[in-house]
Amino acid sequence: MRFRGWRSRTVTTLAGPVTLWRPYWHCAACGTGVAPADARWALPADGASLAVQTLAALVGTVQPFRQAAEMLQRLTGVMVSARSIETWTEQLGQGYTPPALAPTAPGPTADVLVLQADAVMTCFHDGWHEEKVAMAWRIVDGKAQPARYVTGEGTWEAFTPSLAALARRAGQRRARQLVCVADGAPAIWRLFTCCYPDAFQLVDWYHVQEHLALVAAALGEAGAAWHAVQREALRTQGPVPTLWALRGLGRTGATRAVREAAQACFRYLWRHRHRLDYPTALRRGYPIGSGRIESGCKQLVQQRAKLAGMRWSHPHLQTVLAARCAFFNGDWDLACAQYAKAA
Questions:
Q1: Domain of 235?
Q2: Which of 149, 139, 135, 136 is nearest to 110 (CA)?
Q3: Of 48, 109, 200, 261, which is the most exposed, with the fewest CB atoms less than 10 Å away?
Q4: Cβ–Cβ contacts within 10 Å for residue 27, how many?
Q5: 283 by DSSP, 3-state: which?
Q6: Torsions phi, psi of 166, nearest 5?
Q7: CB-based contact 255:220 (threshold 8 Å)
Q8: pLDDT per residue as tens digits for the range 223-262
Q9: Which of 312, 253, 270 is nearest to 121 (CA)?
Q10: 196 and 153 co-located in one domain
C-alpha cells in the first residue's frame, strides 16, 4: 500500500454538509484504494449521516417519498432525494425486529389481553390483495394500555406465527383472560379458535347490528321498533331472544322479503351464537366492538398505502409497513438502533 495524499469526503448531516479530509492509500497489486479513517470514523457509505437517514426514514413512513423529501427540507434544511428516503425507509423496516421474549420469559402481566384482527384490500402491481393487520392491547386495573400491531400478507394461516408472537409480547402467558374480537369473517375466527380455543370470543357488535338492520328495513315502518327491542335484548339477555324472534319471522313473516332477511340473519347469528355473550362482556368491561382494529387498519395501512394512484410491489410495501409498525408500537428507537448496527 502506498500513501497517495489526502482525499475529501462530504457527508450530509443535520447541521448541513460537512467535508472531511482523510489519508488515502492505494494498492498497486490489486488496483484498489482505501481510506482507513472512513471505518474508524464510521462514515456512512451513501453520503448521509445515520441521524439524517433515520430522520428521513421516519418522514418516509408517514408521507409518500416525494412529499417526504420536501417536508424534510422544509423542517431541517437538509436536501435528500425521494429515492434515498425510499431506500432508507425500506432498509429500516426490513431490519426491524420487535423486542423478543426468551422462550421461558412469561412476558408482561395483564388483567385482560384483547386481540383483534382485520384485513385491508391494497393495490399491488399484480392486482388487489389483502393486507392482514392484528393488534393486541392489555387492560390493567381497568385501563387500556397502548396497542401493538403486526401486519403481513398471504393467507391467515401463514399469518399465525406473527399473531402468536404479537400476543406473547403483549402478555398472553400472564393474562387472566384473553378476549378475541373481530367481525364475522370465517377465516379470522378459524385462526383465533385454532390459536386460542379458550379465549372469550365476541363478534363485533356493530356488524351484528348491520345484519339486524337489514331485517328491520324489510319490516318497513315497524322495523325501527323491532330493531330497538332486539338490540336491547342482545345487550341484556344475550342471543337467545333474538334468535327466537328471527326464527319466528323466518317462518311466518308477512312478506317473502321479510322471511328471507330473517332467515339470513338467523343463519349468521346462529353460526356465531357462542360469540354473542354481550351481557357478560359488558359486565366484565370487555370491548364489544372492533372499531379499534378498523381504526388501526386505517392508521397503519390505508393512510400510507392507499393514497391516490398508489400501486405497490409486495416486498416494498411490507418493509414500509414494518417501519410504520415500529413507529406505532413505540419501537422507533429500537428500530433505529437495529438499523445503525446493520449499517
A1: 206-275
A2: 139
A3: 109
A4: 11
A5: helix
A6: -60, -45
A7: no
A8: 999 999 999 999 999 999 999 999 999 887 778 899 999 9
A9: 312
A10: yes
